[in-house]
Amino acid sequence: ALELRGITKVYGQGETAVQAVAGVDLVVEHGEHVAVMGASGSGKSTLMHVLGCLDTPTSGTYRLGGLDTGALDDRRLALLRNRRIGFVFQSFNLIPRTTALANVELPLAYAGVRGKVRKERAQAALDRVGLANRVDHLPSQLSGGQQQRVAIARAIVTEPLLLLADEPTGALDSHSTEEVLQLFDQLNAEGRTIVVITHEEEVAARSGRVLRMFDGKVYQDERRVGR
Amino acid sequence: ALELRGITKVYGQGETAVQAVAGVDLVVEHGEHVAVMGASGSGKSTLMHVLGCLDTPTSGTYRLGGLDTGALDDRRLALLRNRRIGFVFQSFNLIPRTTALANVELPLAYAGVRGKVRKERAQAALDRVGLANRVDHLPSQLSGGQQQRVAIARAIVTEPLLLLADEPTGALDSHSTEEVLQLFDQLNAEGRTIVVITHEEEVAARSGRVLRMFDGKVYQDERRVGR
Ligand SMILES: Nc1ncnc2c1ncn2[C@@H]1O[C@H](COP(=O)(O)OP(=O)(O)OP(=O)(O)O)[C@@H](O)[C@H]1O
Ligand SMILES: Nc1ncnc2c1ncn2[C@@H]1O[C@H](COP(=O)(O)OP(=O)(O)OP(=O)(O)O)[C@@H](O)[C@H]1O
Ligand SMILES: [Mg+2]
Ligand SMILES: [Mg+2]
């Protein structure tokens, strides 16, 4: 389970300080499929950075799978992220001048997976997002939607327990969007926890619960019946 | 008017060559508002790069406002772009470590607009996209939707005759999307030609004409009645 208590995140200081997250209490049980919606600048990506242990909160506590993340040093946080969490970032964050395949292999390399198995798993992940014929392309040689799908492949290749996806279908047409949503349904059915930030109602409709943010707070938390 | 005849764009060579645009004939009259839709990888961004003179076609001709772009050297193409075209790129292409204001001032600086007027115009453009209170933030200190809106402000600050926007609302919630679409309607009412790449039907619905691409070709060209 993910447990946030009294979480705030402030950027900057004094007059120009920005309260990106302004007090969030939240429990996400293991295996849930949650969507996060809200206005531009309302704190969604910042909240995801806290959930993914990429950013330490300014105040409050975050327990992930029972562990108090505030008590872990950087090295243990890095291990935790690599072993348990998959990220799809809002701007993809692919490594330039590095092939799609090498980009997807990276989290496996960090986890100590060996060359041959690593390549096979990366190839399989790219296959799952329909990019088998683009494995040797560099990010600059891929369309926007293809780059986004490489980012998705990289997020799932380690078979993470928690998938955090920030606007994962933002650059995709309806056909590719549907393929990605079915992939997420499949991963959720395998027991993985999924948190998706999205501004599209049709994407949010696929999750069992929708959180809505405004000015750094969660003002609505709605569970769907029968999911 | 924009006139494309027999336009192709091929990346790479031999076995691995990719026909990103595979034969497009198209006329867009001055003042039109056109949407371009199609599957991921179907050639939309590549087509936009040709329309914006950022990429020379592999074959075919492109006349922009009566000028044969194939006959212009790099310096004249750069001038043409700066004076007549505004770009919103799919991945924003903001300059890191440079404030939002400075990013928006850049096309004006290239056009030789002086410091005080330049700052005022850049400030006004950021105001139009609701970012008056973020002018001194760096791209890394802005949310995804805020970065996208800075890119839009930069695209309109030179008051271009042609606006080319690649997924300009991809990172925006419905409220910000509506504001941007109204801004585009306003620009179009001022007589500017607008070409928007989008995968969202609600965005395409705001244009007078929708082109649909697949495998590098335009397979459908539909004008709306009464627009
Ligand atoms: N520099 C390049 N080298 C090789 N192939 C390229 C290059 N740039 C683009 N491509 C390929 O050309 C095709 C069309 O790309 P383009 O970016 O125009 O697609 P798109 O319609 O904009 O897609 P999306 O909706 O995903 O943004 C893609 O299959 C892409 O892999
Ligand atoms: N490093 C930073 N320094 C200063 N302010 C920041 C920084 N990072 C984010 N912000 C501010 O925090 C607020 C929340 O940002 P966040 O990225 O979480 O929003 P978001 O909900 O993801 O928005 P979007 O839908 O546009 O992606 C924004 O107003 C942004 O300007
Ligand atoms: Mg965001
Ligand atoms: Mg594109």
Describe the overall structure:
Two copies of one chain form a homodimer. Chain A has helices at 44-51, 74-84, 100-110, 115-128, 144-156, 174-189, 201-204, and strands at residues 2-11, 18-28, 33-38, 59-64, 67-68, 85-88, 162-166, 193-197, 209-214, 217-223. Chain A is α/β, with parallel strands linked by helices and 227 residues long. Chain A has a six-stranded mixed β-sheet, sandwiched between helices. A four-stranded antiparallel β-sheet of chain A has the order 2-1-4-5, with helices on one face. In chain A, helix 3 (100-110) packs across helix 4 (115-128), helix 3 packs parallel to helix 5 and helix 4 (115-128) crosses helix 5. The radius of gyration of chain A is 17 Å and the shape is globular. The two termini of chain A are 18 Å apart. In chain A, 47% of the residues are buried. The mean pLDDT of chain A is 95. Chain A binds chain B through residues 11-12, 37-42, 44-45, 90-92, 141, 143-147, 149, 166-167, 170-177, 199-200, and chain B through 11-12, 37-42, 44-45, 90-92, 141, 143-147, 149, 166-167, 170-177, 199-200. The structure holds adenosine-5'-triphosphate (2 copies) and magnesium ion (2 copies). One magnesium ion binds at residues 44-45, 90, 166 of chain A.
How would you describe this structure in keywords?
227 residues, 27% strand, binds adenosine-5'-triphosphate
Helices, strands, pairings?
The structure is a homodimer of 227-residue chains.
Chain A: E1 2-11, E2 18-28, E3 33-38, H1 44-51, E4 59-64, E5 67-68, H2 74-84, E6 85-88, H3 100-110, H4 115-128, H5 144-156, E7 162-166, H6 174-189, E8 193-197, H7 201-204, E9 209-214, E10 217-223
Parallel strand pairs in A: 3-8, 3-9, 6-7, 7-8
Antiparallel strand pairs in A: 1-2, 1-4, 4-5, 9-10
Helix pairs in contact in A: 3-4, 3-5, 4-5
